[in-house]
Amino acid sequence: MANFQDIAQQFVDFYYKTFDGDRTQLVALYRPNSMLTFEKEPFQGAQNIVEKLTNLPFEKVQHRVDTMDAQPASQEGGIVVLVTGALMVDDQPQPMSYVQNFTILPAEGSYYVFNDMFRLVYPAHG
Amino acid sequence: MANFQDIAQQFVDFYYKTFDGDRTQLVALYRPNSMLTFEKEPFQGAQNIVEKLTNLPFEKVQHRVDTMDAQPASQEGGIVVLVTGALMVDDQPQPMSYVQNFTILPAEGSYYVFNDMFRLVYPAHG
């Protein structure tokens, strides 16, 4: 059986590949009890979440994962994942830093996203 | 009863106030099953975690929280918290961006940290 680090890495690879390829397909990774907080705005349920993600104001997007950390969640079999990275949209040359945090839970031989929080990160200044 | 947003805010306020004041006192917020991943390095248990935090190579530190998001965790009563912010150490004038992700769980009328992941965030570049 794969360990939580390997599962987290596979999940993250698949998630951003799907996001950058055809983000309507992300619906398969969420369930009715899934939560997304996207730049402070809360959404619940696969349909609402993917509607938000597909309506983001860009056509093309490319995520680059810089760091990925994982820990076992308190719920048996769950995994907490923290990603930092950069994303580029459409033809804007400047990447934006982001952070995203998932809790994924096992179900029917696979995993779905229970918690999902996304924030852009701006350079620190005094 | 306070809702999860209020509890998360109180936790975050208390956590960084304690960290910046006397970080040896953070030991009260962790338990033997707590996990910290600090810049990729894993630690388990209150003693190991606080030993790491107290041995960080600075005397003075000040955290500034820029964003705080919270969601109910999958485990009853737990809360997932995502913080982005900046920190300043000793007399270095330049703040550093960071992100920190907690899962806090209820116990004996209070909360303790089960999951904790910390990363510095560097400005995105192509």
UniProtKB/TrEMBL annotation, chains A, B:
Superkingdom of source: Eukaryota
Subcellular location: Cytoplasm; Nucleus
Major localization class: cytoplasm
All copies of domain NTF2, residue ranges: 7-120
Name of the protein: Nuclear transport factor 2
Lineage, opening ranks: Eukaryota, Fungi, Dikarya, Ascomycota, Pezizomycotina
Keywords: Cytoplasm, Nucleus, Protein transport, Transport
CDD domains: NTF2
Known role: Has a role in nuclear-cytoplasmic transport of proteins and mRNAs.
